[in-house]
Specification:
The chain is α/β, with parallel strands linked by helices and about 475 residues long. Helix 7 packs across helix 9, helix 8 packs parallel to helix 10 and helix 9 crosses helix 10. It is elongated and about 85 Å long.
Length: about 475
């Protein structure tokens, strides 16, 4: 199996030979890695300031591959000896990519950090790529939404015979992407195209999928197919992955809600997702009030934590969530942080209905899309624990129930199954004014998202500022 990655910049801003720094593999050396199923060799057919190509050659040990083989498409006797495993890109190559380029996949490059974070002109070539049950069209459906220009040529199954095209393509991908993103696309999608894995698929595969496809799979138009194939059609794993991807993308609260109800919203595809608009709005509020120490209450998988740590203005960040599982996800989201960033963040398990006096030292507390998940009879406890510590600022966001009509939801229908309620603008204002009066805060309101003249914005935001004694 062969994979090549070519970098050929069109300017003199950086030499193409810096690809060696990004991949953490020196162009002048041939390096071999144990890939489990065989030996992976990394070498550079070319490396110059104008153009550099790194090649990953995987040589599979066919005896080791079938030893003890009990399951999978080659489990029958003849299939153990007559198969395409040593030649066609598959989960074998995906594992080799991870082992050979593990640091590059995290997006880390201490020598060239600006390049690791930049979109680069890349060309990726896989000469023998499976395309089972979909052919070249499937390859395009998987890679084109990720920003790749796809050239997928399917050769005939047998030259001179009318047997149709082979279930493989000669695949070339070109585009401007971060190298880490390109590697994650290959790691996830090569097994999907092959629709098989050479190892047993367990529950940990869900974690791998969510972690490696973070930032792109949740919004991919073929998310269902990718998830189903990657997890070997294991229904319980697929359900878990879909739920976690929905939470990661915040789709259950926003744009995906109408789809769940069977309705279709005619929205432009280039619209900034509501979750991103909400994140931008919250960060803008924090910067405006000069907050430097921020606690995210109900931090979930750490989307806001990561954004806060990317801005050196925020010198201390605390994430609290009642779910240990969510905190584990947040920890994985923060894996790529530098040492200086990690020193600024703390994760803690705890309930928001119990008072934590340490929160008083923070400049701002965040309750982002949290209160609607709390039972109505426990709102008073949450109010006392959050506002009772008298932090300088509290930022609260929650869905605007009136806007649900834009999504095609029926009156009283909630955007997410775990929501206990959703407030109209007047209901949210009544609650916020009551909280402010009871705890000595002033409150102001802002809308987040595209506004409707009659129904307002999809998200409503309240900024509470502690009044002087």
């Amino acid at each position: 199996m062969l994979l090549t990655i070519t970098l050929a910049p069109h300017t003199d801003a950086y030499p193409a030979s810096d690809l060696g720094f990004l991949l953490h593999k020196h162009p002048d050396r041939v390096q071999t890695i144990d890939a489990g199923s065989g030996t992976a060799t990394v070498f550079y057919p070319e490396s110059s300031p104008a153009r550099a190509t790194a090649a990953l050659l995987l040589e599979v040990d066919p005896i080791a591959l079938v030893r003890g083989k009990k399951t999978g498409p080659e489990a029958f006797a003849l299939g153990q000896y007559v198969n395409d495993r040593p030649y066609a890109a598959s989960s074998l190559l995906a594992v080799a990519i991870k082992r050979a380029f593990s640091t590059a996949m995290t997006g880390r490059c201490d020598s060239r950090p600006e390049l690791a974070a930049s979109e680069l002109p890349l060309t990726i070539h896989v000469p023998a790529c499976p395309a089972r049950r979909g052919g070249a069209d499937l390859v395009r459906r998987l890679f084109e939404p990720l920003g790749w220009q796809v050239d997928a040529v399917a050769p005939p199954l047998a030259a001179g015979l009318d047997w149709g095209p082979a279930p493989y393509v000669d695949l070339t991908l070109t585009g401007r992407l971060r190298l880490a993103d390109a590697l994650s696309h290959l790691y996830v999608l090569l097994p999907v195209l092959d629709d098989a894995k050479h190892y047993w698929v367990g529950a940990d595969e869900v974690d791998k999928l969510v972690r490696r496809a973070e930032g792109w799979l949740a919004s991919h138009p073929e998310r269902g197919l990718i998830t189903d194939r990657y997890l070997a059609h294991r229904r319980s794993f697929v359900s878990d992955a879909v739920a976690r991807l929905a939470a990661l993308d915040d789709a259950s609260d926003d744009e995906a809600a109408p789809a769940a109800s069977g309705c279709v919203v005619d929205e432009p595809t280039d619209r900034t997702p509501l979750r991103q608009q909400r994140l931008d709005a919250v960060l803008a509020v924090l910067r405006a009030v000069g907050a430097r120490r921020v606690a995210d209450l109900g931090c979930g998988e750490g989307l806001y934590l990561r954004a806060l740590l990317d801005d050196p203005m925020f010198t201390e960040v605390l994430g609290i969530d009642v779910s240990a599982r969510e905190l584990d996800k947040a920890e994985r989201r923060l894996e790529r942080l530098s040492d200086s960033q990690r020193a600024r963040v703390t994760l803690r398990q705890g309930s928001l209905t119990y008072t934590d006096p340490a929160l008083a030292a923070f400049d701002a507390l965040l309750l982002i899309e949290v209160i609607e998940h709390v039972e109505s009879d426990r709102l008073a406890s949450l109010e006392a624990s959050v506002f009772g510590v008298r932090a300088a600022h509290v930022v609260v966001t929650t869905p605007n129930a009136e806007y649900n009509a834009i999504y095609g939801l029926a009156s009283g229908q909630l955007r997410h199954a775990d929501h206990r309620f959703e407030w109209t603008r007047s209901e949210f204002a009544d609650w916020a004014h009551g909280v402010a009066e009871r705890h000595g805060y002033a409150v102001e309101f802002r809308g987040v998202g595209e506004a409707d003249d009659d129904l307002g914005t999809p998200t409503q935001l309240a900024l509470f500022t502690r009044e002087a004694s």
